[in-house]
Amino acid sequence: MDRADHQLDGWRPIVLALCRDDDAGLVALANRGLVRRAKKDAEREPAVIVEVTDDTVTAVVSQETVQLNRIPGASTCSCPASGCCRHILSAWVSVADALAADVELEDTESAAAEALVADELSAIDDAELRGWLGKKLFDEALREIALGATVTFQLDEGFGARIDQHGQQCRWVPGSGVTAMVCSCHAPTPCLHRAMAIIAWQVHAGQRDIDTVAQTEATASSGTPRTRVEILDALKQWIGDFIHHGFARLNEASAARLTNLATSAHGVDLPRLELGLRRLAGEIGAWLNHDSHVSAETLLDRAATVNLIRSGLIHSVAGSVGEHRQRYHRVGTLDLSGVGARVWETRSGYQGVTVYFWDDASNVWNTWSDARRGRNEEFDPRRRYRADGPWQGCRSPALACRSRVRLLNAWRSSPGRLSARQEVRAIVQEATSLDRLPIVSDFTELLSRARAGVIGGFAASENSSLVLIQPAQWGMPRFDDIAQELRVSVCDAQRRALDVVLVHDTWERDGISWLEKQTLAEGTCVFGNLELRRGALVLRPISLLTDGHVISLTALPREADQEAEGQDDPSSSTESTSGDTDDDSEELVLTDSSVARVLGAVRAELEQLAEGGVPGFTAQRVRDIERQAGALGLARLGLRLRSLVDALTTSATRCTIAEAVLSLYALTGVYAKIEVLEEATATWSP
């Protein structure tokens, strides 16, 4: 292709933004398959440029006339195809080839292009964004970023952004403004993904304060019987009474007040608070029924979590609002690898099955779940595991959990939950291959995941604790008769040890029986959740994987006894329901270090105060613990203890004392988890 004139040099930033090595910009205009065909066309028959102006490039491609525009989505072709056709793509590729052949891009040019993009993105203010997006889309984008949506950037030779939860990519076209930005969702008008990319960049660059962004999700809803402020005030009064009177004074009316507050929280769009209130109400109901699993620790821990959410909402902490579990986004086509399934039951009475997938394009774990409350003949989790679905074209969840699956018209929530709505179609392909999965063989890589998934926080995803490890060595299974659990010690190549633990309950006992009879071969992987259990970091397994074979341990014995089912050739409802699936946390067991003993003493005193009520509690013991905390250098803990002593020994209100108790209990919980985690991995030096 001959260059028409030197005006083509002015198109270099735009071409670089679209035609990088990964072709992300061109893919955003069309799709990867069409881009591949267009590149072959350009190699075989390059486009011929007819005219170059400041705003357009006119070229002839296979006897069709193409006019490239500085707003790439506005480019046109004389062929009858609608949208971005292969002729338009071929013209972009040919222009990129011509520029690359004419002069190589110098590092200084690349740096200048990057600086130009940074300046242009920083110059976009809220007024321009609202004018382009409209208020509704602008507010929704702010909300998504405040909720912790993951946006990854590619800044060299232009600006690229990937919104992982939505599975979409955006490209900024330098010098062309917001209207020229392209997105893989192919929306002809401004879309949520473009808005999220710009706002996330401004937060990343320090131009926009995340606390200011969080104000959007903290805005009170209108048209509801109770406002957010009224709900938080009512909750503050309830917490004050709850701590002042103690657990001995709890009654059904206390739980009913929380349930009403949860209903009100739903009405003003506070899903995280709603869930926390319902769990606390359920825990109070179990306490009144004298259920064996409920203790002062678990009850106080639930209350401390609710108080943290309340405080986060008051101070507009990002993520404190949360997101409704049934809020899904259209993400188009997903290529997923099934890594197993788990059949489960929660203390609150839900039963269900969850299938786990890895999305290697977005680097996130995805799940599909179906659940019901209570045991009944109409729904059995293991039967559901082998029943039809969850999507048209898929024989059963049992097949999906061990196969490569392509989902068409897929919908997914921000935490990674997949919808089973009717328009979603599944193409079941080959068996799951280990090559596509994020296998961890060096156990030190688990540390950051354990901190995120086990210690938690508003930013933590419900899938943060999921890991897939490939031990270098498997130990012999050993059953603990007292703890009623099976432990298998595994090591990495540097002899760092981690216990894989199965608990003898309704669903895992068949997995225990099967695992005790197995000799696991080298290279076998185990997929599961990292947990702190009995003072140690352990892996609660969901499945075992080898190439082409997946064993889901809670779906046994049928899957293990009939191995032919697991070796089938994979190629030959409405919304998913998850229930309250993460309410099974056990009581925290501390180590025997000096710090742990102080933390344990603080927690014990707070539990005693909360159980008996404030009037009968003396602060002398808390003063003694405060001195111990100071001697160990736990300054923050010491300040919180001093605040509690001051509240107890002055005429502080019930609400002030309750705030001091619950915030201190939450802090000791975080410190305790960190202490257990550090003790458990003390020998894991790199």
Describe the structure.
- By secondary structure, this protein is an alpha+beta fold.
- It is built from 23 helices and 22 strands.
- Strands 14, 15, 16, 17, 18, 19, 20, 21 and 22 form a 9-stranded mixed sheet that branches. Strands 11-10-9-12-13 form a 5-stranded antiparallel sheet.
- Strand 21 and strand 22 (549-552) form a beta hairpin.
- Helix 7 crosses helix 9.
- It is globular, with a radius of gyration of 29 Å.
Shape: globular
Structural class: alpha+beta
Mean pLDDT: 82
- Total number of strands: 22
User: In what range is the share of β-strand residues?
Assistant: 15-25%
Largest sheet: 9 strands, mixed
Helix-residue proportion: 40-55%
Number of helices: 23
Distance between the termini: 55 Å
The low-confidence runs, each spanning 5 or more residues with pLDDT under 50, are: 1-5, 102-108, 558-574, 576-582
**Taking Cα atoms only, what radius of gyration do you get, to the nearest Å?**
29 Å
Summarize the structure.
This protein is of the alpha+beta class. A hairpin with a 4-residue loop joins strand 6 (159-163) and strand 7 (168-172).
Task: Write the SSE topology.
Layout: H1 12-18, H2 24-29, H3 32-44, E1 48-52, E2 56-61, E3 64-69, E4 76-77, H4 86-102, H5 107-122, H6 126-133, H7 135-146, E5 151-154, E6 159-163, E7 168-172, E8 182-183, H8 192-204, H9 210-217, H10 228-245, H11 252-267, H12 271-288, H13 296-314, E9 329-345, E10 350-359, E11 364-373, H14 381-386, H15 397-400, E12 403-412, E13 425-431, E14 439-440, H16 446-455, E15 466-469, E16 473-474, E17 478-480, E18 485-491, E19 497-503, H17 509-516, E20 525-533, E21 536-546, E22 549-552, H18 558-561, H19 563-566, H20 594-612, H21 620-631, H22 635-649, H23 654-680
Parallel strand pairs: 14-15, 19-21
Antiparallel strand pairs: 1-2, 2-3, 3-4, 5-6, 6-7, 7-8, 9-10, 9-12, 10-11, 12-13, 15-20, 16-18, 17-18, 18-19, 20-21, 21-22
